[in-house]
Amino acid sequence: MSKIILLASLLVSLAASAEPHKSGGSHKQGFSTLMGSVDHRHYFHLVAANGEVILQSEAYSDEEGAKKGIEAARTAACGAGTFKISQSIDHHVYFVLKAENHEVVGVSQMYKSKQAAEKGIESVKTNACENKEKK
User: Fold this and answer.
1) How far apart are CA 18 and CA 41, in angstroms?
2) Distances (CA, A) of 123 to 22, 29, 59, 108, 116
């Protein structure tokens, strides 16, 4: 199994257990930082207008690291990074966002088709570039 698939699976499961940090628990459009309820590490999510989490981060040791990750994701999504679409072992499609230095800065949710993942990429570009961080 490739490292990227393992990373994507791990990020999806860990970030899914995360609780919104300094918020009421609702998914608001834009970036938000979260603290994992299981591992007490910090993550960020990018949420679309429909409330869906469209990008999630790796684990950071503190909230400041997650905020720096948000800026890296914003920079990557708004032009300096690349999106790579891949397929999981159970045939779902997902994408990763890589920064200019080729580091993964975010992983998408799982999609049923490549076309849906492509729409997700467009949503990340729109939401990352138009919305400011929400705490």
Assistant:
1) 9
2) 25, 11, 23, 11, 10
pLDDT at residue 37 in the model? 67
How many whole angstroms separate alpha carbon 91 and alpha carbon 113?
9
CATH of the domain at 23: 2.30.29.80
Domain total in the chain:
1
The answer to whether the CB of 49 falls within 8 A of the CB of 96 is no
Q: Determine if the pTM surpasses 0.90.
A: no
Distance of CA 98 to the CA centre of its chain: 11
Locate 28 and state its tokens. Answer: 């608001």
> What is the pLDDT, as a whole number, of residue 39?
82
Q: Residue ranges of the alpha helices (H) in 1-135? A: 3-16, 63-75, 114-130
Two structure tokens written together for 35: 């603290």
User: Computed from CA positions of residues 56, 122, 85, 100, in that sequence, does the dihedral angle turn out positive or negative?
Assistant: negative
**Does residue 135 form part of some domain?**
no
Q: Which tokens go with 53?
A: 């989490």
Residue 24 pLDDT > 80: no
